[in-house]
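User: Continuing from earlier, I have the next pair ready.

Assistant: Great, send them over.

User: Here they are, in order.

Assistant: Folding the first of the pair now:
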Amino acid sequence: MADRAASAPSLPDDWPAHPDPILALNRMGSFDWDLDTGLFHMDAQAHEVFDLRPEEYDGRPESLSVRVPAAEGRRLDTIVARAMKDGSENYGTYFRLRRRDGTLRWTRTQGYIRRDATGRPRRIIGIVRDATQEIADIEARREQAAQDEARRRLTNVVQLATAALAHARTVDEVIEVLRDTHGLTRLGATSLVMGLVEAGRIRLVADGPDNTFVPGTRVTRIDEPYPMSEAVRTLSPRFIESPEEFAERYPLLWQHITHLNITAAAYLPLIAQARPIGAIGLLYSDRYGFSAEDRNVLVALGSGIAQSLQRAMLYEQEMDLAEGLQQAMLPRTIPSVPGCDVAVRYRAASIGGALGRDIGGDWYDLIPLPGGRVGAVIGDVQGHDTHAAAVMGQLRIVLRAYAAEGHPPATVMARASVFLHELDTDRFATCLYAEADLATGVVQVVRAGHIDPLVRYGDGSCRRAPVEGGLPLGLSAEFGRLAYPVSTVELDPGNTLLLCTDGLVEQPGADLDEGIEVLTALVASGPQDVRDLADRLIDVAEERRGDDDVALLLLRRHGTGAPRTFGRLQQHVSPGDPEALTEARHMIRAAVRTWGASGQSDEIELVADELVTNALMHTEGSAVVTLRLLTGTDRRLRVEVEDSSSALPRRREAGDDGVSGRGLLLVETLADVWGVEARGGGKCVWSEFVVSHRTG
């Protein structure tokens, strides 16, 4: 016995360690566990933590099993064994113990491992304390953090959805934002449905993802037993917090969506101006129930979606009105004009890239005029709104009226400018008016701040036709009554005149001249047919998706069945220059003979001489004599005498002894047809002779 006692492990000299009074004051018990003997000493406060009386504890750790549940004991043993094995100096953990009354209490233990010189664990000194309140506080903080995270997530849902919807301008774009995969992610839902109220019914306009549509619900009545119908009917949301509740309240719908594993759902009315415009249903497969805060956030989400929908509906209504107004203001049809092919196109601007179309003040017009002439108009009123479209319509009408009244192009443009100023609007407009004589190919062009026209020639080449310009329309008050110079462009058979607004020319990062060069090359390489060419140009504008409207008018002079010019001779005659007058007479005589009209030589020379003489006698400037041979259904020789006076000739009755007043009577008698045209600041008196049956 003595030998055994002598060989038994001895306790450390300072064992057991004395507890620090501070530990006791903080309701912490201490323990000292001698690993060699296995004795586990606890102080009085530790006994209280374990709810053990001194006589109930024999100093062995195994005796604590009466208070420490088996699972907790095994977990504690694992933690301590791992700390001793991996060389740790301390460990700490929470565990539960069962008190005398059977209740479970959380306890915190921390131990310091003492080792010998070889690193072998010999002793553990530590503390134990009741941690029930601490764990409760931790759980409360954790729950609060979870609530904060849920609140943040829901708030983020609203912010993300609102940000995405802010870019949606049409109802279709709102629906697209909501129904795609990213939209569902933003909304935090597994799937959704959305319907709009139409004539007392709900029409489903969105559902997603795929395979979530319920047959028979595309159009439903508001009084049917569906959650969306109830939300619309009552103007209040419907929250479904469990599958059981869904099945009980809406069995008709539930039987079709069981495969979606829905655990909760929220159906929100979409209310705008105190009336329902639709409803949205958000279905979840990862949540149960909705807190008061969840409900508030979802209601706010529904309100945001409703506002976006209302904004989109108002935008579409305004666009329908504006487009209807613009279409009403633009010519409904383009008249067929003998002698030319015409193509017109209009493309509305893309405002904001791929986010929609807008309305503007670009326009075109084609005006049939007497004498085989036609007026072509292209213009652009400042702005992209219904006001611009309204101003455009009025301006188009007055331009057409002034041209139809027979005013020369410069007068048409000047009067239109005064009209726009007197319209009491802050808008101005650019415009180009071209009056083409399809018989001669002469085109008189007036430009008011607009870009120059292009001419595509029969050989496929294309060039810019420089036109002297004036200020935009509507600036009469600032600059007085505006004068618009007239330029002349020759349009031979097969040539095409192109008029367009700057939306077809302007390109990001390029100036106007570069844009015109690009357009010129595009026209030169484009199709011969004006309709195909117009389609090609509009396709290019569509691909470019510019932020300005495009109006386009193409006029191609052709030959079959229409007048064509096969010859053109011209002579300038100055006052007091008998040689020039003699040369003009020689030119006329030679042309008549060359073109096979020698049998009518006397009549033609007499009429031409009379027209030139009148121009020199009754005006202060010179005259320009032009002869043209025209072919069509018949062959005609045309004589034109142009001067700088705007005073129109008048036929007068000559007295018995008078020598004046017989000139126009002579012209009327000898020519097959004659007339007067205004030419900018002057006029042109012309006469035509049919020569097809008088050749000789």
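And the other member of the pair:
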Amino acid sequence: MSWLRRWFERKPVRAVPVRDEPDEVEESSGCSHDQAEIEQRIGTPDFDLFVAEGELEIGGNLKHGAHHLACLLLIDPSRPDWRQLADRYVAKAGSRLDRLIPETAERYAATEALRAYFWHAQGRVEEALRHLVGVTEAMHDKRYLDAWAHEWLAVSGAVEALPPDLILRLLGYVVTRAPEPHKASLPQLRMAERWADLACRALPGELSGLQAMFKAGLLRKAARYEEALVAVGPLAQSDENQAMARGLVLRRLNRPEESQEAFARAIELSPGNESPFLEVGDTWFDLAQWQHALTWYEGALAVEADQPWAKASAAFCHWKLEGGEARYQQFIELAREGNGRARQIWYAHFDALPQFHDATANCWRQMRSDLAKAAPGRPEGDRFEFKLGLSALEAPSNRLAIALDCTAAGKAPAMEISVDAIPSPDPRVPLTTVDYLLWRYDGTTPFAAVDPPREAISERIAAMARKRYSMEANCAEASFAAAELGVEAIGDLLAVMLHPPAVPEDDQALAWVPRIQLTAALVLAQIDQGWDISERRKALYSMLFGPSDWITGAAIRALAWIAQTEQAHAMDIHEQFLFLERQIPDMGGCCWADILYDQWRHLPFQSDAERERYEKRLQELSE
């Protein structure tokens, strides 16, 4: 890495591989040991940016720099400063632009995408788009199309000038990869609206076949349902593709009988295709109409006996209709065998946010039955005493849960919790300077350091938390709340974690409080953009490093989600997790330690050895 020595003449730079291959580690020379060392992990955005900028600034090996630029843009092809860096490469290379990405026997998505970017910069628009669509199909990910292709085609006359085969290939791929509106985040829905506008420009007038199907599909993904129905035309004149598109739109409009009629038309036109059977089955499955759904899944199995989607869906319908351990095990066995549909159904119907198991929480689980027995016939406002001796101080949210359950039962909680020892580091004080202090202590008794939130925000978070737990769906819904509430609501979103709304009648506080805290954290995770000086970073790190609590666990989950969806920030979050790990108490339980290791192992840019360490620590904690 001679470029490192040319670029950094004063400070030593140590390039650390993500995986443990020692031959990838080099150190620069010519530096005194009393100067600060800069450590970069190979394969991370920081390292790729360092190399790409370095080669450009010194006018060195632009081919080497372009490789790292391609890796950088793979992480986030829409990031403005990285796009500007790509444009600087275009300007620097000039007529030598094609030499930056030589033709090789092995092709990689990142470098081939950058090749398309360079071709577009040279005015080779159609070639660039065809190449980018090929990259997208190989990746099974449309990030480059959203970031670049849409921008290129938004120019007046651009999409209209494309040949029909490329338009269909492009729009067809976009519609298959875009989420349905009810599962989309706000940014995803806005992108779908942009693609729908392009589809209307590219495919005007009356259409048939795949053209009608793809245009209607993009309008459906943008939640423009009535326009989508117009695009597919009357059912009586539909071909198979139009009938399928119509059925999908009507399903989203919650018109299941009409949706079924459209799919039946597709079956009539193409009886050997199992897809319409599956779509009707899914329509009734989503409405919990198990017998209707089962009938159509069995129709799909009659066409293709081992159709995996139909097998898993039918097995679940049988269990819902008939019950019994045998039917349940048949379904579970499909999930164990790797059936993706079975796993999807399991997560949708059985997954739940894990509850905390502090000694206080476990004791309260046993005592809640006494609360229920005491509730009938007791006058409003009766006290319910809870006395407990702890060997070490535990999370203050335990007290929130006890108080909420008592209030729901019409009791005034009277808690006496004695503590024998305070762990080190002291869980009552922040681990470092924080922007928002959430808990204060009087001795070992915690108090909320923030006032209650505005009622409207408390109700908004409660409504979101009452919905079925699904990290993907919950994050998507939180994006809409974040855009609506804005950074002015940060204080309220933090406050609702310490002043949670009343427990729903069919729930328990030990499950409700963590749901409220995570829901608010997911809104905070999307409350603004950027990272280094963002308000969301300040709020989430205040939760992470403030007094030890269940809230710490909510912060870990929200930060891990950011690291996976916005990988440019992953290494900063990794560094904070490293610091947090060093603060695990020296005695007693730690309510967030298992969450830390569980979430940490899913962060990008972790070595095999690191993931093995997290797994080992998780196993030790479980034992």
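Worth noting for the second one:
The radius of gyration is 28 Å. The longest helix spans residues 186-202.
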